[in-house]
Amino acid sequence: MDHTWTFIYCRSCIVLALSFAALTSCIGSDSPNFKRVGSMSQALIGPTTILLKDNSVLVLSPCQGAELYNPETKVFKPLKHVEIGHNVNGHVTFNGIEPSSLFDSALIDYVAQIPSSSLKRAGFSRTLLPSGLVLIIGGDAEQVISTDIEIYNPKTKELRHIGRLCYPRSGHQATLLSNGDIVVTGGSPDGIPAEIIDGKSLIARSLDTTLASRMHHTAIRLKDDRILLIGGDRYPASQERDVEIFEPSQDKCAPMGPLNEDRALAAAAVLPDGSVLIAGGRPITVTDFDWLRSAETYNPQIQEKK
């Protein structure tokens, strides 16, 4: 049944007509560049995504469980159990299926157990390198923000200090490019520039482009080596939905518009067709009960590498 309400304010000659359907459309309409897809059956705390070789996306929470996303049907399926094992090649598998990439940083917890006693700080980033080593960057301890760049060797359990960032930062993201360089974006304190760590020398240098201030965001490399910067905590908090694409090779960025919902610490995966699944995360409020079940996709225009 369609309900229509009409309010007439004669003095100003203003006629305002609102329908129930219009209200629903206003509340539930998609952001221009981001399309809602099916929701997860549960709100996963601290989710991460792993693209599997069958093109499905595993969304995992260390606290609660997992869901499997089908890119064709755009539907999530809750998983009662995820069996983590290894195949004949020694590669980690999830319910018998190997990840699409063995160097996805989402696999760190399954291929590199980093002892918490080795890192006496929080808010650092971890990047899985093609060599199998893990790059650990920044973080904070006792209100002191670090510039440390360290390498962790999962085989020898050795943690080695190798250099420093240009700026101290915590709550940032570090994204591995196809050429081996690592781009570091966002974090606290507010307003610090992005920087890039040379993949060979592991020396950091500052970048000139001014990116929006954000921390606890999601940064994911697209197929053309651009980086999608998604949501996060920002000041003012009303800007939390904003998304940017950063092009490291040109040192420039472009706004991509808002998400459909505020999201910090969301999970994201680049799908086989180049589009990006953005799932879960938390809105501005920070209680464990506020994590999101919703998901959306973004389909960037993939640029050819020059």
SSE order and pairing:
Layout lengths: L3 E6 L4 E6 H9 L5 E4 L10 E4 L5 E5 L3 E6 L4 E5 L4 E3 L5 E3 L13 H4 L13 E4 L5 E4 L2 E2 L2 E2 L2 E6 L4 E7 L8 E4 L5 E4 L9 E3 L6 E3 L11 E4 L5 E4 L11 E6 L4 E7 L8 E4 L5 E4 L15 E4 L8
Antiparallel strand pairs: 1-2, 3-26, 4-5, 5-6, 6-7, 8-9, 10-11, 11-14, 12-13, 14-15, 16-17, 17-18, 18-19, 20-21, 21-22, 22-23, 24-25, 25-26
Would you give an account of this structure?
- This protein is mainly beta and 306 residues long.
- The protein has one domain: Neuraminidase, CATH 2.120.10.80.
- The protein has two helices and 26 strands.
- It has helices spanning 20-28, 108-111; strands spanning 4-9, 14-19, 34-37, 48-51, 57-61, 65-70, 75-79, 84-86, 92-94, 125-128, 134-137, 140-141, 144-145, 148-153, 158-164, 173-176, 182-185, 195-197, 204-206, 218-221, 227-230, 242-247, 252-258, 267-270, 276-279, 295-298.
- It has a four-stranded antiparallel beta sheet with strand order 3-26-25-24, with no helix packed on it.
- A hairpin with a 5-residue loop joins strand 20 (218-221) and strand 21 (227-230).
- The chain starts with a strand and ends in an 8-residue tail after the last strand.
